[in-house]
């Protein structure tokens, strides 16, 4: 039972009504025999490969994913495409799951994942004539654990360039970032706009540096706050995408007065209703009650009290010179009218993300108790004005520069596109590119990686195995090594595998698989394979950091390393599946037919 | 568990542009939109199956919204164009026709999709830099001190919507009103950032278009006779106004969800009313002449204030609140228990009655220079009136766009032919092909696709079987009407599409679908005093061009469609 994939998802019906590709249509009964089972896996992965190849590389096209609700997504992202297929076969779902987990961790490489997996399985096809799948899986895992890191250290790292953040002056660093981003956007957004977008991203990251801190904390800042830091505008060409200083709050003014003569602008954030709601649900207000202390109370006095307290809040706001009020909720009409009389701007229904970013950037706290507003609640802004982007009106604020600034020069990203589908595609590519840069510059430690792996493989002793070579792995990940993009890593590693891995039979298989992937990449870039291969090798043989940096595009070795490990794990898990159990759950679609459950007899 | 339904696998289709059904639908859509294009475009009547309004239109925003295809691929193009229209109000059909033609021709040319995409982008960049450049032959500077060009721009927008059913004289009248209303919303006195005013549009059915008018200030519908008699007396001096944004009906909706328990012998309603009347007394004391409330006013309070000679307007609605606040300078009041601060009062210069058709309106005149005006549109029936109102709003938007970038483009197809001629002239296949990583023949093929698509749009302006020509000196677009086709060209042509050029001896023409040797179009007109008679919005058309090419590129780039069936 242990290696069984799709265990949690056994609520699969018995029928296989229609598959997206005819090759995926196979009878369940076939799975009970060992040899055709591998064929089956190969067929599934090849079908996925065929889908992914449509949008692979800079010349690949896009995929339109539509729902019956009318919603449409245009994408080149491998993960999006694969999850959109909604595959039914448990093995296919397991592969898609692995891809999803991998790309969530690194932001990149999902199409490469499928290509490498398919090539690797094709190599195994011949190897399986002499050995068993179980044996092969064991060797593969052993090799991935023990030897792969060492080979990368020996065969790839010497040819790369160390792009560690601390070492470089800023301009070299961002040159390197730009070269990493260009090939990423080429594959994710196509060639026409990749230069412009990578330039924009670079500029964006440069401005979002976190002062006096490790440069990668700027990446973290952008990654976590990305929803609040970008605005999408449809109906305008992509080339109008730009950066604007300060923060954009995605709500319109409920009350607006131009803040021309007030410098600087003072602002306060509210998270709840300022005018007290007199009666909560279930409360009872007794009107006309006679009391010695309160005399006769009429309902008018209650509402008068409510208004009075609101006026006190405004008096206190005016004493601080506040002229902008941001609120997470919709305020009462009296609140808006009093704000208008006090010539204050009001912005209602601001999202929580934006308010927390605002609080962080202005170093203030939202008002918790409306009766006690203090100086710590009052933010200082350089300006606060309306901003029209597309057909939407937003609020644009900026913060004064100071010594202890959280972010050096905060800017918001405006992403334009002719339709919502495109702006969404650009936004998700932006976010993934930052994820990719984070993996390059600040790979997470071995422990987190092992955690990821344990999800892929159900019950193996991952920790103990990986701890045998943690230093080497850490070395690969810590090196921040970059190599020229476009198949160089694959070619270098496949050569190194042949040189250093002769003791392991799987090393040769992996080498061949890598070579076939690099063939896909090279045909994309220059049409023919061998000259490109020669070019890469000559470039790398006369290596120096200058030679690497002179190329127009780079890719990160740590991303590739994680990719390779994920593929090896996925392949291992695929090989170790012996039988698939289809359990039957009675659904409301009243299928009376009982599923022909097959027994797992391996134990 | 019983509610769990397994997700169905998605349906996939490969290479949508090779799919006969999709191609057919794209061609159908192109023909439909092409036939509606321009001043002589054919009108479309839109019905729905449940007996709603019958809409008569040739406007892209209405047409495209009505079209819905089962093919999401077609919808993708549609929404892209609609996004442009919602942002710029103009040139929607231009963008749609250009986009669909580009897709069709690129497909026919047999170029690889990614090569097509690269080439289209390259030619687009060429066009955009030409249009923004100094020596652009198709751009006209707009001068705000002279309303002539503004009226031409407005007239081009209005006359391109034939569903308004206007005569030449009526088009001119409406164009002048649109420009007048636009100019009234511009504040003149304030330096720095300016806030534009508002034009409130009122439609009156059953009258001639020539009865349409523009008023400074606001016209508000009133139904009550009582206030009207008094209103006539209020024509001079600054009259104080108060504006309430909360309900004055005596309800306490803001109290919350709890329960109110009223003890016997307590008359809450009269207490509340007493409070409201307190408010009325203050208003009377402060000599307010106009009392406006967004929501409902208690009848007793209304009666009291009327008896004191105050004009009361209730249920104004949220749409009119902003103009009335801008007009009067009042600040909305929403507190009932405190005295109204003096700063909250606004002023109007005069209140009078206007009888427009069947409607009796209260005319609120602004005190000083105000940026609020009212456009009263008249037309013969409801359907055309609705289209006219839409067109006037679009015209206002186009004029506002011109504020940011005071420029216009030659209309009548001349910009399109000029751009095509410019691209052909600039063509340097050896250099560009190397830069674009394609062969020279691919480059030339891609150029023909792009130029033919532009020329197709110019040709689409004609719907009567005439011929489209381009002159070989200035590269403007000329139309030879079908009835003069027998005559030689020199005698049958009058003016070019935009009206800048006149037929003069020594001019040479060629038919638009024939090849001509590239030439550099001379921008100097024979007659320096000549003014173009058709102008298009620069900002809108530039964006439309970019959106059209980008959308076409997106369509060409899609290789696979996955349809979620859940």
UniProtKB/TrEMBL annotation, chain A:
GO biological process: chaperone-mediated protein complex assembly
UniProt keyword annotation of Lipoprotein present: no
Top-level taxon in the UniProt lineage: Eukaryota
Pfam families: Cpn60_TCP1
Molecular functions (GO terms): ATP binding; ATP-dependent protein folding chaperone
InterPro entries: BBS10, Chaperone_TCP-1, Cpn60/GroEL/TCP-1, GroEL-like_apical_dom_sf, GROEL-like_equatorial_sf, TCP-1-like_intermed_sf
This protein's UniProt keywords: ATP-binding, Chaperone, Nucleotide-binding
UniProt family annotation: Belongs to the TCP-1 chaperonin family.
Name of the protein in question: Bardet-Biedl syndrome 10
Species per Swiss-Prot/TrEMBL record: Cynoglossus semilaevis (Tongue sole)
From TrEMBL, chain B:
Database matches in Pfam families: Cpn60_TCP1 (PF00118)
SUPFAM superfamilies: GroEL apical domain-like, GroEL equatorial domain-like
InterPro entries hit by this protein: Cpn60/GroEL/TCP-1 (IPR002423), GroEL-like_apical_dom_sf (IPR027409), GROEL-like_equatorial_sf (IPR027413), MKKS (IPR028790), TCP-1-like_intermed_sf (IPR027410)
One annotated Gene Ontology cellular component of this protein: kinociliary basal body
Gene Ontology terms: biological process: camera-type eye development; chaperone-mediated protein complex assembly; cilium assembly; convergent extension involved in gastrulation; heart looping; inner ear development; Kupffer's vesicle development; melanosome transport
Gene Ontology MF terms: ATP binding; unfolded protein binding
Entry protein name: MKKS centrosomal shuttling protein
């Amino acid at each position: 039972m242990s290696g069984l994939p799709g265990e949690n998802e056994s609520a699969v019906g018995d029928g296989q009504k229609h598959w997206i590709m005819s090759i995926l249509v196979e009878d369940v009964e076939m799975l009970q025999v060992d040899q055709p089972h591998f064929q089956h896996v190969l067929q599934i992965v090849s079908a996925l490969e065929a889908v992914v190849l449509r949008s692979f590389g800079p010349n690949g096209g896009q995929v339109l994913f539509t729902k019956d609700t009318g919603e449409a997504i245009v994408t080149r992202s491998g993960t999006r495409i694969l999850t959109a297929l909604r595959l039914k076969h448990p093995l296919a779902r397991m592969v898609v799951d692995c891809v999803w987990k991998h790309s969530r961790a690194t932001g990149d490489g999902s199409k490469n994942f499928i290509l490498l997996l398919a090539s690797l399985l094709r190599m195994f096809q011949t190897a399986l004539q002499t050995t068993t799948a179980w044996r092969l899986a064991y060797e593969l895992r052993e090799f991935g654990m023990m030897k792969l890191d060492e080979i990368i250290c020996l065969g790839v790292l010497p040819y790369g360039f160390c792009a560690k953040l601390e070492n470089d002056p800023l301009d070299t660093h961002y040159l390197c970032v730009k070269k990493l981003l260009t090939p990423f956007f080429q594959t994710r957004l196509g060639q026409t706009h990749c230069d412009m977008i990578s330039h924009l991203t670079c500029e964006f990251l440069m401005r979002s540096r976190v002062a006096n801190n490790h440069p990668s904390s700027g990446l973290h800042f952008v990654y976590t706050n990305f929803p609040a830091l970008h605005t999408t505008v449809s109906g305008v060409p992509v080339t109008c995408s730009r950066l604007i200083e300060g923060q954009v709050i995605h709500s319109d003014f409920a009350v607006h007065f131009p803040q021309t003569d007030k410098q600087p602008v003072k602002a306060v954030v509210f998270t709840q209703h300022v005018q007290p709601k007199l009666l909560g649900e279930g409360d009872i207000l007794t009107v006309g009650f006679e009391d010695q202390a309160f005399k006769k109370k009429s309902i008018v006095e209650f509402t008068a009290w409510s208004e009075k307290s609101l006026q006190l809040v405004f008096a206190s706001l005016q004493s601080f010179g506040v002229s902008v009020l941001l609120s997470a909720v919709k305020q009462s009409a009296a609140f808006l009218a009093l704000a208008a009389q006090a010539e204050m701007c009001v912005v209602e229904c601001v999202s929580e993300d934006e308010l927390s970013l605002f609080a962080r950037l202005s170093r203030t706290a939202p008002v918790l108790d409306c009766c006690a507003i203090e100086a710590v609640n009052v933010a200082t802004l350089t300006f606060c004005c309306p901003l029209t982007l597309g057909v939407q009106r937003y609020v644009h604020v900026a913060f004064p520069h100071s010594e202890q600034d959280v972010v050096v020069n905060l800017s918001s990203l405006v992403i334009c596109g002719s339709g919502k589908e495109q702006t969404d595609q650009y936004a998700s590519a932006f976010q993934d590119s930052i994820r990719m840069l984070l993996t390059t510059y600040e790979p997470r430690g071995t422990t987190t990686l092992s955690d990821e792996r344990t999800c892929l493989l159900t019950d193996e002793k991952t920790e103990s195995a990986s701890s045998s070579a943690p230093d080497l792995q850490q070395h690969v990940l810590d090196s921040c090594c970059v190599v020229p993009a476009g198949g160089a890593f694959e070619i270098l590693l496949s050569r190194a595998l042949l040189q250093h891995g002769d003791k392991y039979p799987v090393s040769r298989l992996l080498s061949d698989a890598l070579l076939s992937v690099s063939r896909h990449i090279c045909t994309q870039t220059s049409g023919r394979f061998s000259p490109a291969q020669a070019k890469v090798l000559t470039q790398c043989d006369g290596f120096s950091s200058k030679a690497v940096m002179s190329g127009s595009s780079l890719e990160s070795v740590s991303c590739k390393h994680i990719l390779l490990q994920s593929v090896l794990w996925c392949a291992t898990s695929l090989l170790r599946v012996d039988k698939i159990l289809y359990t039957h759950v009675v659904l409301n679609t009243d299928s009376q037919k009982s599923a022909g459950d097959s027994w797992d007899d391996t134990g | 568990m019983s509610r769990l339904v397994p997700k169905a696998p998605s349906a996939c289709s490969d290479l949508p542009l090779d799919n006969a059904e999709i191609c057919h639908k794209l061609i159908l859509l192109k023909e439909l939109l092409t036939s509606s294009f321009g001043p002589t475009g054919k009108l479309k009547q839109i019905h729905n199956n449940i007996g709603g309004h019958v809409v008569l239109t040739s406007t892209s925003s209405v047409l495209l919204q009505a079209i819905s295809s089962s093919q999401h691929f077609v919808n993708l193009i549609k929404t892209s164009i609609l996004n442009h229209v919602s942002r710029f109000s103009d040139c929607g059909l231009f963008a749609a026709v250009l986009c669909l033609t580009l897709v069709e021709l690129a497909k026919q040319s047999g170029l690889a999709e990614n090569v097509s995409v690269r080439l289209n982008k390259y030619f687009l960049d060429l066009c955009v830099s030409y249009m923004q450049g100094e020596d652009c032959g198709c751009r006209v500077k707009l001068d705000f001190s002279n309303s002539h060009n503004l009226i031409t721009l407005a007239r081009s927008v209005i006359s391109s919507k034939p569903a308004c059913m206007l005569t030449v004289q009526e088009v001119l009248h409406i164009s002048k009103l649109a420009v007048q209303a636009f100019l009234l919303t511009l504040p003149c006195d304030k330096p720095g950032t300016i806030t534009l005013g508002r034009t409130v549009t009122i439609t009156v059915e059953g009258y001639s278009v020539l009865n349409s008018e523009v008023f400074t200030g606001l016209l508000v519908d009133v139904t009550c006779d009582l206030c009207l008699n008094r209103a006539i007396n209020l024509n001079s001096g600054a009259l104080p106004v108060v504006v309430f944004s909360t309900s004055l009906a005596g309800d306490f909706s803001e109290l919350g969800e709890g329960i109110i328990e009223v003890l016997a012998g307590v008359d809450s309603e009269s207490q509340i009313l007493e409070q409201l009347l307190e408010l009325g007394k203050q208003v009377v004391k402060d000599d307010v002449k106009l009392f406006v409330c967004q929501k409902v006013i208690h009848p007793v309070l209304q009666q009291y204030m009327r008896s004191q000679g105050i004009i009361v307007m209730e249920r104004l609605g949220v749409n009119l609140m902003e103009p009335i606040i801008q007009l009067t300078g009042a600040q909305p009041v929403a507190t009932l228990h405190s005295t109204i601060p003096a700063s909250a009062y606004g002023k109007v210069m005069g209140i009078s009655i206007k009888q427009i058709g069947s409607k009796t309106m209260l005319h609120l005149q602004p005190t000083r220079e105000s940026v609020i005006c009212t456009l009263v549109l008249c037309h013969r029936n409801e359907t055309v009136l609705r289209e006219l109102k839409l067109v006037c709003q679009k015209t206002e938007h186009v004029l506002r766009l011109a504020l940011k970038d005071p420029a216009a483009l030659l209309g009548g197809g001349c910009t399109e032919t000029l751009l095509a001629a410019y691209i052909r002239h600039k063509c340097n296949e050896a250099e560009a092909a190397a830069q674009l990583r394609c062969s020279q023949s691919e480059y030339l093929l891609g150029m023909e696709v792009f130029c033919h698509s532009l020329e197709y749009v110019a040709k689409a302006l004609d719907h009567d079987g005439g011929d489209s020509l381009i002159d070989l000196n200035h590269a403007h677009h000329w139309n030879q009407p079908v009835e003069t086709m027998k005559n030689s060209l020199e005698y049958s042509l009058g003016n070019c599409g935009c009206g800048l050029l006149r037929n003069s001896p020594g001019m040479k023409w060629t038919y638009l679908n024939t090849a001509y040797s590239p030439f550099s179009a001379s921008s100097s007109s024979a007659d320096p005093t000549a003014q173009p008679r058709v102008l298009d919005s620069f900002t809108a058309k530039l964006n439309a061009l970019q959106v059209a090419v980008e959308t076409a590129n997106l369509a060409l780039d899609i290789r696979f469609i996955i349809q979620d069936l859940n």
